[in-house]
Structure formats: C-alpha cells, structure tokens
Write a structure and sequence with these properties.
The protein is α/β, with parallel strands linked by helices. Helix content is 38%, strand content 15%.
C-alpha cells in the first residue's frame, strides 16, 4: 500500500518542472501515464551526454537527465496536433484524477485540451498547469526556462562572489521547486475535492515559485527596504555562518545563536574575541563581518579540515566538509538513508537513481516502474484503458497518431 495508490495522473509535461512533479506523485504510488510526442518524445531524452542503453529514434541512448525525473511512469506516444490524438488525450483525461501540463499558456486551449474544455467534460478533474509566468499577467504567454527565471527573479543577483559576476545556482532550482510546489498544491486540491466533489485549476508559475523561494531574503528587503547584495557563501543575517578555508580544504560552520557563538570562541581558545564589544551580539557581528571573518579565516588556515571538524562536532556546533558530488554519494549518511537506488531498465540494464527524500513509516515510496522507453506502454494503455483493438492501435501508428 502506498499513499497515492489508485490515483491516476495524466502527465503531459516535458523537460523538468512538470516531470519532477509527476515523478513525486508516482513515487508515492500514483499511476502516472506520460504522454510524449511520437519519434522524439520528451526533449530531455536528448539532453546529454551522458547516455545509457541502446540507440533509438534520434538518440544514442537514454539520457541521464531524462532518467533522473521519469521513474514510476508509463510512456504513451500521442500526436496531440491531430484530431485523433486529441481525442485519445480527452478520453484518458476522463479516466484520471489529475492532469499535469507545462505547455506555454494557451497552447493546449487552442487544441481543445485546456482547463475550460476539460473541466466542462470532467468536473472532478484536477488540472495543474505549470508555466513560466502563470496564466495571467502581461508575461503570461512568454516561455519560461530555469536560467531565465533565475536571472529575472533575482536569484542571480544574490548568488556568486561578492565582487564577481552574477551566478546561477548549479542545479535548475526554480524548475525543481516549481515541481515540488505543484505536487503539494495538487494534493491540496485532491483534499478539497474530497470535501466538495469538484476539481479545480492549479496554476503554478516558475516566476511565482522563484519569488516564494526567496523567503528570508525577500523578507529582508520587504521589511528593511534595502536591496540584498551578493555575499558569496556568507549568510545575510548571521555571522559567522559561511565557508572557511582550512590548511587542506574547505568547510562550513555556523553560529546561529549567542550560545553557539560562545561555544565557538571557547573551542578556539579565544576569550578575547568573545569579550570584544564589536562581536558581542549577532547584530554587531553582522556590522563587523569583514573584520571577524578575516580573523577566523586566519585561525582556520592553521589546521586541516578534519581536525577542525572533529573539534567543532565535539563542541556541538553545526559544521561540515564541502564535498564533491562523488563524496556525497559515498557519504555514510547517504548510504544509511538509501539515497542511491537501483532499477532494471528495459534497455540500459541496471541504472542508479537518487533515493527518496520522503520517508514514510507505514506507506513508503518505492520504485515500481523504471524510467520508461519512449512509447513503451502505448499499446498497453490504449488496449487496457481505452479498449482499442490491436488492429486499431496499429492503424493509429500507421497514421502517425501514436
């Protein structure tokens, strides 16, 4: 038993934000039917290298990018530009609880597959639209990509070295966050349907998600009316709380309250810093950030990372080595928490996937389907759910509908 068992999701998404959302629902037990274009499919199938498995269509194999966000789904190829393809999607929508799409605002409306048309047919359907800028406002019809939104939404203005150029975050954080917000909103809409019996539109935009993600940085601006600046690895409200260079590498340590600040001074054997009026409170430390950080860097440069981490942990202070990605997956905590999983793929054999961040004691997430091959389940879905005959499926394939 999984928490979303018997929930069916029609996934008309590609790239990252939408697939990440539907993967989360699939991980928790939903039957996710992923609709892809015939021949090429989700464009992220071509986002590589690296690729694994056998070549197919225009691709040299399955891209690692696609594999990352498409487990626990069935792939069905449908040309939604054709009347027959639109009818297939319409029929599938009538058999599902949730439809998720991330086309440019208005594109599916032109095909008769937008929220107004499907809501009239299926009033219980939850229709989630993920777009760059949402379904209203002057930018509604613009396309949205993660890097563009990181720039336009302010992320790049606060990321990077103090005196360096603006920088994007090293992962597509806006896409991922939008997918997470979408999954949460869908679950809320499903709960509302339990009460009212009515489905609704869930309107998620990368732009809105980015602004919500600014969190404390946005609040600092809205309350203090002072535009934030790039601080490198430092924290805008806490000092010390950043990366420091030891003799043989980098680590990070944070003192988030006065008790921790005192513990740090005691561990360093520096009562003079603890007693210094310039550093007596966090507010004073923020005001004198450069002076304090320079002295701490001088101290930390005298010993190796592991020596400092041992002493900091002994003192009960939050700290950690700045690891490479390979070090992360070799980390004993990552192994203990099963954050690397394996699945048998139809073409690539055994593939490794990231583990589940959600740990439920009674209804755990699981991999019940590997990332699908393009169109792997087309015949299965059309014959078992929509009652097409094998001959009818073959006819649709000959016409380029599937």
């Amino acid at each position: 038993m999984q928490p979303l068992n018997k929930l069916r999701v029609l996934d008309i998404t590609r790239a990252l934000a939408g697939p990440y959302c539907t993967m989360m629902l699939g991980d928790l037990g939903a039957d996710v039917i992923k609709v892809e274009r015939p021949v090429s499919g989700d464009e992220s199938r071509g986002w590589g290298p690296p690729f694994v498995g056998k070549p197919y269509g225009p691709y040299p194999g399955e891209s690692a990018y696609f594999i990352a966000t498409n487990r626990n789904k069935r792939s069905v190829t449908v040309n939604i530009q054709t009347a027959e393809g639109q009818e297939i999607v319409r029929k599938l929508a009538g058999m599902t609880d949730v439809l998720v799409e991330n086309y440019r605002t208005g594109d599916l409306d032109k095909l008769g597959l937008g929220y107004p048309d499907l809501h009239r047919l299926y009033t219980k359907l939850i229709y989630c639209s993920i777009s760059g800028y949402g379904r209203s406002g002057p930018f509604a019809e613009r396309p949205g990509y993660d890097a563009i939104l990181q720039a336009e939404g302010g992320m790049m203005s606060i990321t990077g070295p103090v005196d360096g150029p603006p920088s994007r975050v090293g992962i597509p954080i806006i896409d991922i966050t939008s997918g997470m917000f979408a999954a949460t909103a869908i679950l809320a809409a499903l709960r509302a349907r339990d009460i009212t019996g009515e489905g609704q539109l869930v309107d998620i935009s990368l732009f809105d998600s980015h602004i919500a993600l600014l969190a404390n940085v946005a609040s600092n601006y809205l309350v203090g009316n002072e535009p934030p600046r790039r601080l490198g690895n430092a924290h805008p409200n806490l000092v010390p709380y950043e990366a420091f260079s030891a003799r043989d590498g980098w680590f990070i340590v944070g003192a988030a309250n006065e008790k921790q600040w005192g513990l740090l001074c005691d561990m360093l054997g520096r009562p003079d810093i603890k007693a210094d009026s310039r550093f007596a409170t966090n507010g004073e430390r923020v005001a004198n950030r450069e002076t304090l950080v320079a002295e701490l860097n001088r101290i930390f440069s005298e010993r190796d990372v592991n020596d400092w981490l041992a002493d900091l942990a002994q003192a009960g202070l939050p700290c950690g080595r700045i690891n490479s990605i390979s070090e992360v997956f070799a980390h004993p905590q990552a192994q203990a928490r099963e954050m690397t999983l394996e699945s048998e793929h139809a073409s690539a054999g055994t593939v490794k996937l990231t583990g589940f961040p959600y740990k439920l004691s009674q209804t755990p997430a699981e991999i019940h389907r590997p990332p699908p091959m393009l169109g792997e389940h087309t015949e299965e879905v059309l014959t078992s759910l929509l009652d097409y005959s094998p001959k009818g499926v073959a006819s649709l394939r000959d016409k380029g509908t599937i």
